[in-house]
Amino acid sequence: MSGLIALCVSCVAVGCAVAVPAPSSTSSLSGSTSRSPQPSGPQVDALEPFSNARIAHLSAPVPAKEITAGEAASGISMPWKFLGFADGNKVATVAYVGGDGDCTTPAGFYVHPDGNDVTVEAASREAAGRTACADSLRMGRAVLQLPISIGGTVRLAHAAIDPPWSSPNFFR
Q: Which residue of 23, 87, 142, 157 is 20 to 30 Å from 1, comparing CA positions?
């Protein structure tokens, strides 16, 4: 299935996502069973709308499930890409990695102001006790309600990503 997009579409807690094969350069998509150390601090987004063939085949964006700081802290921080703004830059559409759809599944988004930034964390959770996991990549698109408009001195930032999920190949 390398390079092919699976035609399987399923709805998950965060919204509908498409299962696609894992990039060949990743050895495992399950991550570790405990939360990995994260790099320090959020990374500011360049606000350049991202697009490629993989993103074009995802289901339509759905409203993001909002989660608390505690839920985000107990989950796995996943990568996401900025796709665009609406409503005076108070609504952002993003593409996100949700997991493998088996051992790691989407939990929701933690969106919070942090100084001059609005930090977004796409969080997933691991199923307890699972050792055999699907070798696929679950991705989706979500619409986030931001607490304040992005622009001027207010920036959109990514929460630190858990290292096992930090591969740049997820969005190639």
A: 142
